[in-house]
C-alpha cells in the first residue's frame, strides 16, 4: 500500500475514534441524569398534600417523584399544585384542577399506598409529570376501650377502675362465685386479641368486637390469672392482666343442730344461738350433732375440734348432771378465720 493510502486510512480511523468518543460522552451525560435532576419543561413552584404529610424529598421544581406517609386515621388527602406560569393547565389524577386549588384523593386501607399523578401542561403542548406515592400507616392502636368482669351478668368492680393505659387489675369475688366472664373491647377493630387463662383461651380476629372468655375459678382463697394481649395491625402488642381473687368464706353459721335425746327449745334456726334441752333422769348421755352451713368452716366444742375444714358435720357427747348443766358452747369459725358464731346448748336433766 502506498504512503498516500496509509495516511488516508489513518485519518479515517482517527475520525471514527473521535466520533465514537463524542457519542459516548453525549450518551453518558444523558444516562447519568436522573429524572429528578432534569429541568422540568413545565415546572411547578409548589406541590403539597394535606393533612400534612411531608414530601420526601423536599419539593423542588425539577424533582418530579415524591413519597409521603400519613397517619392511619387519614382516609384522604388534598393535593395542591402551583404552576410557574398562569397559563399552565393542572391535571390531578385525571381531573383538571385550577392552579392553587386543592383536589381530594381517597386513600386505600391502612398499610396501602396510593399513587397520585400531577400533570402540568403548557399551551404549546409541553408537559411535566409529578408523582406522589402516599403510604397510609398501619394502625398502632393496641389498647382496649373497655374491660368488664361479670358473674351471672353482675359486674364485678376492677381495681383500679378501667383505664386504657393501665395494664394490671385485681378483682375480688365472693367465695360462692365459681365462674366469671371477661369481656374485652378493642379500641381498633382491626386489631387482634388473645384472651387466656390457665384452663382455656380464645382468639379474637380483626372485625370482631368485643371478645369474651369464660373463666372457671379455683377454690375459695385461691387466685386465677387472666391475660389479654392486643396486637395492633402494625404488630405492636400490649398485654392486660387481671388477677381474680376468690375470697375465703365468712360463713360461720350452722345449717342444722340436733340432739339424740329430748328436743331443742326453741327449734333450731341458724340465727338463734341459745338453746335448752330437757331430758329425763334415766338419760345418761346426750350427743349433740352440728352441721356447718359452709363445709370449709371449723367447729369446736369443749376445747376440742368437732369438725375440721371439709368435714360437714361434727359431734360431741356429754354426760349431764342433775338439774341445769353448764352450757355446751359450739363455736363455728368461718374459713376466713375472722368471723365466728357460738351456739350454746344447756341441758337440764330432770329429777
What is the approximate shape?
Answer: rod-shaped
Alpha-carbon Rg, integer: 45 Å
- What does the main sheet amount to? 7 strands, mixed
Q: What is the tally of beta strands?
A: 27
Structure annotation, total helices: 1
Estimate percent helicity. under 10%
Oligomeric form of this entry?
single chain
What portion of residues belong to β-strands?
over 45%
Unreliable parts: 1-37
Explained architecture:
This protein is mainly β and 351 residues long. It contains one helix and 27 strands. Strands 19, 20, 22, 23, 25, 26 and 27 form a seven-stranded mixed beta sheet that branches. A five-stranded mixed beta sheet has the order 2-8-7-4-5, with no helix packed on it. The longest helix is centred in the first third of the chain and has 30 residues, at 3-32.
Topology:
Layout: H1 3-32, E1 44-50, E2 65-70, E3 76-83, E4 89-92, E5 95-96, E6 103-106, E7 113-121, E8 127-136, E9 144-151, E10 154-156, E11 168-173, E12 179-186, E13 192-196, E14 201-204, E15 211-216, E16 223-231, E17 237-246, E18 254-259, E19 264-265, E20 274-279, E21 286-292, E22 298-301, E23 304-307, E24 313-318, E25 323-324, E26 328-333, E27 340-349
Parallel strand pairs: 2-8, 11-17, 20-27
Antiparallel strand pairs: 1-3, 3-6, 4-5, 4-7, 7-8, 9-10, 9-12, 12-15, 13-14, 13-16, 16-17, 18-21, 19-20, 21-24, 22-23, 22-26, 25-27, 26-27
Amino acid at each position: 500500500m502506498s504512503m498516500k493510502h496509509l495516511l488516508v486510512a489513518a485519518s479515517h480511523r482517527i475520525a471514527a475514534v473521535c466520533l465514537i468518543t463524542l457519542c459516548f460522552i453525549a450518551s453518558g451525560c444523558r444516562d447519568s441524569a436522573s429524572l429528578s435532576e432534569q429541568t422540568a419543561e413545565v415546572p411547578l413552584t409548589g406541590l403539597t398534600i394535606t393533612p400534612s404529610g411531608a414530601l420526601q424529598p423536599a419539593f423542588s421544581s425539577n424533582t418530579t417523584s415524591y413519597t409521603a406517609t400519613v397517619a392511619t386515621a387519614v382516609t384522604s388527602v388534598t393535593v395542591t399544585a402551583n404552576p410557574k406560569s398562569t397559563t399552565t393547565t393542572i391535571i390531578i389524577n385525571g381531573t383538571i384542577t385550577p392552579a392553587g386549588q386543592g383536589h381530594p384523593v381517597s386513600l386505600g386501607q391502612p398499610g396501602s399506598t396510593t399513587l397520585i399523578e400531577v400533570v402540568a401542561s403548557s399551551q404549546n403542548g409541553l408537559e411535566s409529570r409529578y408523582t406522589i406515592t402516599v403510604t397510609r400507616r398501619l394502625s398502632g392502636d393496641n389498647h382496649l376501650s373497655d374491660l368488664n368482669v361479670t358473674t351471672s351478668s353482675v359486674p364485678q368492680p376492677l381495681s383500679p377502675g378501667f383505664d386504657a393505659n393501665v395494664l394490671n387489675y385485681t378483682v375480688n369475688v365472693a367465695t360462692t362465685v365459681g365462674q366469671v366472664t371477661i369481656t374485652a373491647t378493642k379500641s381498633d377493630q382491626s386489631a387482634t386479641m388473645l384472651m387466656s387463662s390457665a384452663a382455656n383461651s380464645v382468639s379474637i380476629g380483626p372485625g370482631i368486637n368485643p371478645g369474651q372468655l369464660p373463666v372457671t375459678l379455683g377454690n375459695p382463697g385461691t387466685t386465677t390469672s387472666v391475660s389479654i394481649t392486643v396486637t395492633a395491625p402494625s404488630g405492636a402488642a400490649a398485654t392486660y392482666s387481671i388477677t381474680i381473687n376468690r375470697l375465703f368464706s365468712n360463713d360461720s353459721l350452722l345449717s342444722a343442730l340436733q340432739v339424740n335425746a329430748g328436743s331443742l327449745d326453741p327449734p333450731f334456726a341458724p340465727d338463734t344461738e341459745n338453746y335448752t334441752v330437757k331430758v329425763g333422769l334415766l338419760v345418761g348421755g346426750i350427743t349433740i350433732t352440728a352441721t356447718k352451713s359452709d363445709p370449709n368452716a371449723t367447729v369446736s366444742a369443749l376445747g376440742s375440734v368437732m369438725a375440721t375444714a371439709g368435714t360437714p358435720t361434727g359431734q360431741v357427747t356429754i354426760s349431764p348432771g342433775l338439774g341445769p348443766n353448764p352450757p355446751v358452747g359450739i363455736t363455728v369459725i368461718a374459713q376466713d378465720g375472722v368471723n365466728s358464731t357460738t351456739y350454746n346448748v344447756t341441758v337440764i336433766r330432770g329429777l
